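Quick one, tokens below. Sequence please?
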């Protein structure tokens, strides 16, 4: 037997839902952290147009955290400097993040000793970066009570770190490196490499002499030309690959 529709309740539910979403959007805007509106946070520096989305994850030791310009720090991202809050960590920054860095939702950057992230790095959600690891030297003491090991972490500019990757203490990742989703990185990774696995290993690398080895299996994507209108893009999307290739062959060489 069909249920009777309560139009008043349905209308009221829609109104409440709209109010909740509108209110939450306002809270997110008001709660985000920027250089102009840092709230209670006193970062060592925070660059132009950088924004930490609300709700934030755990943040402490911010006087020793330096954030570059045009960074996007997504919701629930943890940024910490030092083992615990309210420590004096000296005159130098502990966590340094370059310009144009994107940290995906739920990521953690734990900088008990120095962590440096170069400019234009992109991190998927739930990436974990730490400069500290538990030690288990003493078999008679609980592992959580033993003094941890700390080693600096450095991530070069232009890297892409996939979802759920783990960057361990002592990692030195070069320029323009791809870290596959779920990889566990330790040690040194050369420039222009792709690493995957746990522990992560180089599965592809570019060098000036040999190019990409093993060779790439797909052609490089073609950037959208300047000045393309939405209508032109829609028309292009309707063409098959052969038609696109014929059009490209008709274009005069620059």
């Amino acid at each position: 037997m069909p249920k009777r529709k309560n139009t008043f309740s349905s209308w009221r539910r829609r109104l409440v839902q709209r109010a909740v979403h509108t209110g939450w959007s306002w809270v997110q805007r008001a709660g985000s952290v920027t250089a102009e509106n840092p709230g209670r946070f006193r970062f060592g520096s925070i660059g132009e147009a950088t924004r930490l989305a609300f709700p934030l994850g755990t943040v402490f030791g911010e006087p020793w955290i330096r954030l570059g310009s045009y960074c996007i720090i997504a919701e629930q991202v943890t940024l910490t400097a030092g083992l615990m809050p309210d420590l004096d960590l000296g005159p130098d920054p502990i966590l340094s993040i370059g310009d144009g860095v994107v940290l995906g939702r739920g990521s953690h950057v734990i900088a008990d000793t120095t962590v440096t992230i170069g400019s234009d790095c992109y991190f998927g959600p739930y990436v974990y970066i730490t400069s500290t690891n538990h030690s288990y030297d003493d078999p008679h003491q609980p592992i959580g009570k033993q003094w941890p090991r700390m080693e600096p972490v450095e991530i070069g500019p232009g890297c892409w770190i996939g979802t759920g990757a783990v960057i361990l203490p002592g990692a030195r990742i070069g320029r323009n490196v791809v870290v596959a989703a779920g990889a566990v990185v330790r040690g040194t990774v050369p420039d222009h490499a792709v690493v995957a696995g746990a522990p992560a290993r180089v599965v592809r690398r570019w060098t000036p002499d040999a190019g990409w080895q093993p060779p790439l299996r797909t052609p490089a994507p073609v950037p959208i030309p300047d000045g393309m209108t939405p209508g032109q893009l829609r028309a292009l999307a309707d063409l098959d690959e052969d038609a696109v290739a014929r059009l490209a062959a008709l274009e005069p060489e620059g």
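The first helix runs from residue 7 to 31. The domain at 17-216 is CATH 2.160.10.10 (UDP N-Acetylglucosamine Acyltransferase; domain 1).
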